[in-house]
Amino acid sequence: MDIEQARNAQNDRNWSEGPLPLQDRIVPRQQHPQQVMCWAGVGYGVKTPLFFVPAGTSINGEVYREFLRTKVFPWARRTYGNRPWVFMQDPAPSHKAIETQDLIRANVSEFIEVDISPQRKNGKWPATSPDLNPLDYSIWNELKTRACAKKHQTVEALKRSLLKAWDEIPQEMINRAVDDFSKRLRKCIQANGGYFEDK
After folding, report:
1. Low-confidence ranges of the chain (pLDDT < 50)
2. What does the alpha-carbon distance between residue 183 and residue 179 come to, in Å, rounded to a whole number?
3. What region holds the Tc1-like transposase DDE domain (predicted)?
4. How many domains does the chain have?
């Protein structure tokens, strides 16, 4: 997410009986606004803290595995204890590395694997997953809408806004998004793994 104000070109409209002044018709944007990368996880009745990736960090397999070891798995152990839970992620290169999947398998009760390569076809997750992750089809947009309603002057201000917005997202909204997963999965199966958003 970046420090610019979030705008929805489809839904943000100005209705006027006459021409709007020029400053109301132009949306100034920086060419390369400062950004922050964050990671979060959700489940029915739970959400992780919002974790920020240090600026300039390239997320390769080694960095991602260290993040899982030091942040995600300790949180999961505190939250779930001995109760079963399922870990799901998209097929980003750092996620589908063999070492990463081995690490996850050794630390969680159940894991939805992704294909390591198109030739192996050993994963259970669609290769081009059409928004089956509750964060992707619901929660990230809600976070951006809440946190980026106005432009931020600094990355630190954006981080504060993101943390506040994350804390304010109701668990009921997350639970509904998680409940939608099985419906979306059925639609994905009906579409043979293809696009299904408007079906």
Report:
1. 2-4, 8, 10-11
2. 8
3. 24-159
4. 1
Read off the pLDDT of residues 187-199 as tens digits, 9 standing for 90 and up.
Answer: 888 888 777 776 5
**Cβ neighbours of residue 186 under 8 Å, at least 6 residues apart?**
none
State in Å, rounded, how far the first CA of the chain is from the last one. 29
Cβ within 8 Å of residue 1, ≥6 positions away:
35, 36, 38, 143, 144, 147, 148, 158, 162
Q: Are 134 and 177 in contact (CB under 8 A)?
A: yes
> For residue 75, what is the domain's CATH number?
3.30.420.10
**What residue numbers bound the domain in which 131 lies?**
34-190
Query: Which run of H or E residues covers position 86?
Result: strand 86-87
pTM above 0.90? no
